[in-house]
Design brief:
Shape: globular
Largest sheet: 8 strands, antiparallel
CATH topology of the largest domain: Helicase, Ruva Protein, domain 3
Radius of gyration: 21 Å
Number of strands: 10
Strand content: 15-25%
Strand order of the largest sheet: 5-7-6-1-2-3-4-8
CATH class of the largest domain: Mainly Alpha
Distance between the termini: 53 Å
Number of domains: 2
Length: 301
DNA sequence: GCGCCATGTATAG
DNA sequence: TATACCTGGCGCA
């Protein structure tokens, strides 16, 4: 079957290639709430892997959606919650207003169909998620409880993260990615926030000063909130934008303007040194050897 | 058309 | 530390 020609009044917000960090999940939760909450929703699993659970939820009112770190929760009436984790490649494409709901394309694990705020049909398709399970409040709370503070949540207590970091010999670049230390930060925000604070990713957590941690936290609160608003990760300051520097804008699949993430071998936007990369905690890490020169040892530069 | 890589995490050894 | 899992985009034949 061919993909349906797509001509809604509003262009569909494509989250399918999201490769999500916390901002993506917060944005999805807000959008799904805005589109579906308060009314009964048709729930199905065209692909079949969530069919039994979908049948139980079909026609039930969606009370709302919430996000914690990189986890998404769809809260249906009767304390039934769908716990979703997109993993590396999952996506949840929300179409707030279409003239007609198309036949599913590809492996759609979960489909929501309802009436959007405009009165037109609305639907959302979940694909490629590593986690999609029907749980109760207890299981949801357990998931949230094992997460560190989330910079996107107003109820977050950054001191919990600081207590872990200040005691740890592990590299800060690893600690920032540990969802039990801090929730929602992924590989892009890790690389970028460390650059912005001139910290080498291998620097042990316990060598950070409290003021440095506080500055990082405050920065993440702002950067990630921007990410929610804009729908992509932009971290360069005004003086380093393509327009300000007269350089071509970045073109790749995540689209945001960044200092070091996936810029290995290219000149640092601040000092011109070539951006370096190495694997840290199983993921590619990027840093500027000059701006983030924390260790004097040449071996680590 | 194929293989690889990717904003993530769980599990096995 | 290695690998498995899931999908889409890209570079390269």
């Amino acid at each position: 079957m061919r993909a349906p020609v797509c001509c809604p009044r509003f262009p569909p917000l494509r989250n399918a290639a999201a490769m999500p960090e916390g901002h993506t999940l917060r944005r999805l939760a807000d959008e799904i709430s805005g589109v579906f909450a308060g009314s009964p929703v048709r729930v199905s699993s065209p692909q079949g892997r969530f069919a039994a659970e979908a049948a139980q939820l079909d026609g039930v009112v969606l009370d709302g959606a919430d996000a914690a770190g990189k986890h998404l929760f769809l809260e249906f009436s009767g304390e039934r919650i769908v716990h979703i984790h997109l993993g590396l490649i999952g996506g949840f494409a929300v179409h707030p207003s279409v003239s007609e709901v198309p036949a599913p394309v590809g492996a759609v694990r979960l489909r929501l169909v309802g009436q959007g705020p405009t009165g037109d049909p609305a639907y959302a398709d979940l694909r490629g998620a590593t986690q999609c399970e029907l749980v109760g409040p207890g299981a949801r709370d357990a998931v949230v409880a094992r997460l560190g503070p989330d910079p996107l949540r107003p109820d977050a207590d950054p001191d919990r993260a600081w207590q872990r970091i200040a005691r740890s010999h592990r590299p800060i670049g690893e600690l920032l990615m540990d969802q039990a230390v801090m929730a929602g930060v992924g590989n892009v925000y890790r690389a970028e926030v460390l650059f912005r604070h001139r910290l080498h990713p291998l620097r042990p957590g316990r060598t950070l000063r409290r003021s440095q941690f506080s500055a990082i936290w405050a920065d993440l609160v702002e950067l990630m909130a921007d990410g929610v608003r804009v729908g992509r990760i932009d971290t360069v300051r005004p003086e380093h934008t393509p327009e300000a520097m007269g350089r071509p804008p970045r073109v790749d699949d995540h689209g945001g303007e960044v200092y070091v993430y996936r810029r290995a071998g290219q000149p640092c936007l601040v000092c011109g040194s070539l951006v370096r990369t190495d694997v840290l905690a199983g993921r590619n890490s990027f840093w500027c050897p000059q701006c983030q020169r924390v260790f004097r040892s040449r071996a680590l530069q």
